[in-house]
What we know:
This protein starts with 5 loop residues before the first strand and ends in a 16-residue tail after the last strand. The protein folds into four domains: 6-196, Hypothetical protein af1432; 205-309 and 328-434, P-loop containing nucleotide triphosphate hydrolases (Rossmann fold), CATH 3.40.50.300; 442-603, P-loop containing nucleotide triphosphate hydrolases (Rossmann fold, 3-Layer(aba) Sandwich); 658-749, no CATH class. By secondary structure, it is of the alpha/beta class. It has a seven-stranded parallel β-sheet, sandwiched between helices. The chain has a six-stranded parallel β-sheet with strand order 12-17-16-13-15-14. The longest helix has 24 residues, at 165-188.
Amino acid sequence: MADIFYAHSLPGAVPERWQPLEEHLKNVAKMASEFAMPFKGEKWAYLAGLWHDLGEYSTDFQAKLLNENGIKTAVRPTGKIIHSDAGGHLACLKGWQSGAKRVLSWLIMGHHAGLADFHPDKIGVRSLSIRIKDPERSGDILKNVPQWLIDQPMPVQPIPKGASPSFFIRMLFSCLVDADFLDTEYFMDKTKSKLRRYDYPSLNYLCENFMKYMDRLMNKAKPTKVNALRREVFEYCIAKASEKKNVFSLTVPTGGGKTLASLAFALTHAITYRKDRIIYVIPYTNIIEQTASVFRRIPGFEKAVIEHHSNLIEDNSEIDSRLHLRLAAENWDAPLIVTTAVQFFESLYSCKSSRCRRLHNIINSIIIFDEAQCLPAEYLRPILYAIKELTKYYEVTPLFCTATQPVISRFKSVDFDFREAFHKEPIEIVRDPEELSQRIERVRFSLISKELMAINIEELAKYIDNESQSLLCIVNLKKDARAVASFLKTGKVFHLSTNMCPQHRQDVLYQIKEYLYRNQEMIRVISTSLVEAGVDLDFPVVYRAIAGLDSIIQAAGRCNREGKLDEHGRVIIFKLSKQPNYVSGRAEITEEFLRDGNNIENLQKHSAIKSYFKKWYWQLGSESLDKQNILKLLGGNRLDYYFRTASDRFRLIEDRHTVGVLAPYGNVMEILARLQKEPWNHREIKRRLQRYSINIFIDQMDKLIKNHLIHPVGQSQQEINLFMVDESIYHKDFGLVPSEDAMPVDPEDFIL
């Protein structure tokens, strides 16, 4: 037996400066137990930390460390060394009850590879049942383990009564893997570790600055009906923040100041009940950047706000001063996190250690779900189940914000009852949402044709050309947006769709706002639904293709948003001859509602919205609210869960049949040139390039390559397989415009 065993080596350093294995195990155990203490899992986390790297007591692993650092040894490692099995095997050899050994084996054996399925029917030999089947395989390794580690007692600590065991295991896993990451980083890269321990401002400090900022903002605001409503909503939020732990809802018309009002509630509630952080969950990436920038304008918030989404890029000139922001995004260890619903919920159901490590920092937080109506119905049951677990057992206060509140309604017709899931009524922050909505009515709805008869693109363009005011027209298909924009003959025309890369869309939005608010020139903006949530545009007239009632009301939120018109704004609903499949079901329910001409005046009433969602959920059916059977894969108390399969199936955005290609736009070529100059920085550069990326079907890409309309770019030695569409099919106004002969399927059937 060696005199000393090591966990990590330092390149170029003598073994005396390496990290002893016992030190690493003790550090991880202590840190993991501290993370798990708020949910009474500290004993489980402590033992998992002590045992997670017992496999590194193998002579093969120690020889590998020595050989990698040029130190000769008689032992030559044979094959791949899997050091994460030994701790799980020790739990099995202890003869403890099956529940204890399974929990510890899941945590320890998964701390690198991720949480596995228990049964092998879906993932084969990678399943937990196979890996723990023959624990004697680690016998030789365990002979080297100090006896005090072997003699550790079983963690006699029951899972809280009624709590989900699979959720509890996932939280323990988060504590273990984050502790392992952090201790390893502290030893290997103390500079980076020090940056991670950034001195963030306290929530008390942020709250004090925020209140001063809002006081100045409201005092400067013009005395309009909309601003009076925003002040009222703000005051409601402050008053309700003293309420005890519960589920809250904030139902406010679009443009009613939900973003800052909900932050007022969260900060006040956090101070009152000593919460650790605020997490702001937003449906779309294009909204998250706008929301984060709103928060950063508040004095003292600039370095307290952490964005976490796929397009987050740190400016290279600031990489040293703002590296802490990127590090904090890894585990959400900051006072204010702004993230996407995809990142939040896919992390909650992920099996991967890199995504799960942040979960324990959700504990004792306030979570604001902005634009809650955008939560996908197909995953509504597992989404609400996760929120219920966080609320009941992990000290989380959730707040649902929306103008069209579907999530917290009761729908017995589809066996879906929010109140049954949460065992209590949510507290509505606004005293009377219906009255508030009626008091601030800013638009009038009308139909473009009697009984909503279908019209074609040319007819729609004529209606728009006859308008004497600036307007926004929202259609359901990208090709319809291009066609309408092409037919128009009056006003300055702008086009927006996801066939344009994010940077292209951002630049066009900037131009639109310049024309709207400064140039006073009549403009026409033709867009897909991407402008409906969180995009601050204000038009006197909005045209909206028939769709779900929630989409129509969100579109109306871009009309007379600030209430500055002498008359009501106008929202005109129309129907084109072709409806895409993804919208037809919702559109049919809206059409049914609109066939009675009197109903159009009641379109924004809460009774209409609730009726719409009741019919929509009934049309989907009860089983469709968990279309991938996520809860069955992770339910029950038998500890035979399918963690990996659930992780693979829980995809809020189904993108596995698409691939990202670069657009020949802006300074994309300059960024690509950096790949040759800075090969060591290729990950950072590739993330920056996401601002210039468009998603297309894989089979479309194959056809475009064959027709020489997509070209490989980048450096293969860095294993960066990047492709760029040819300039001939990327239009300065419309983005990617593929010709029909280059496409095997209609790209317009796929909307991101």
